[in-house]
Write a structure and sequence with these properties.
Order of helices and strands: HEEEEE
Largest sheet: 5 strands, antiparallel
Low-confidence stretches: none
Number of strands: 5
Shape: elongated
Structural class: alpha+beta
Mean pLDDT: 92
Amino acid sequence: MQLVKHRATVILREHVQAEAELVGRAAVLTDGTAGTVEGVFLDESHGLRISIAGHIGKWPISTIRMLQP
């Protein structure tokens, strides 16, 4: 049980770090969608997904082509 708690803690820590690094930054996705990252979400089948302000939907984080430095 201790191993499961440790893994869950690591996953949540990484999610919080990704949120801190991405939310509020401008991003361009591989399909041309561009805007400010509004949120970061955990998806059990795809991993991290992001939402972009002004666009409906959530995209896999792997589709980020450019991110504001």
